[in-house]
Amino acid sequence: MKLGARWENMRLLCRTIPVVLCFLAVQSSSAAAATLTNQTLDGFTRYVQATEARINREVSRPDGFLYIDELGSERRSQVDSELRSGGTFMERLVTRDSAGREIEAPGGLIHHWIGDVFIPGASMREVLDFCQDYNQHKDYYPEIIRSRLLSRSGQDFKIFYRIRKHDVITVTLDTEHDVRYTRLDDRRWSSRSVSTRIAEVVDAGQPGEHELPVGQDDGFLWRINSYWRFVARDGGVYVECESISLTRDIPTGLGWLIGPFVTSIPKESLESTLANTRSGVLNLVALRRK
Predict the structure, then answer these.
(1) pTM confidence score
(2) What's the sign of the alpha-carbon dihedral 267, 268, 269, 273?
(3) Residue 106 has what DSSP assignment?
């Protein structure tokens, strides 16, 4: 991808001024940095379709429902011990096409992670009540600064989040998502969340705050899909989430600045989401059972 005017100017500027001043210049610039092209989006769509085909096969089987169920016995025992101690399991995934080739999104980067937590003493109803209480998510997830249920029809939800992400630089995003929950049997549920709109917000919280055109922004998050699995067993509920997100690629010469953001944030965000889901449900359980 060709560098946008903003990033090209910043790259040249960084050769001649100190890093701190360069950072401030990047923060204050408002020119578009990247464009989400049809080619990039097509690659992401192919990746999602291949991944969802595998997920659909997995959730339809009663055994091996979770990703961690398919780990080797020694590794599975270690992970189970960590989860029961309040830890979070995380692993990077890669989906390939039917010929075993990588599925690329030219001009973009696809980030694919899966994670698990175990919530002891919780019921499936308590976990679902917490996950579906979208108006309150801002109180439990630090990077969600506004949350709102837009509409609900049965187990279909439309939701709004304002998200603030920080790693070297801070980015604020207004996002909308379609979420569908599916009951598989008495012990197992799944859900699918798909972003329908993501807009970067400039000067968030200030009188002049405004959105950049969708798909013509800094490219820190263009798409995100999340696939959740819930299973009640072992005296609690296992919660697993698989996340696939799309960001811009890393401009030449600016890896030091935005590289850590676009590569580390997807993992850290999912890990934080799972940990806060666990703690949030435990708080809910404690309040209900007083």
Answers:
(1) 0.86
(2) positive
(3) T
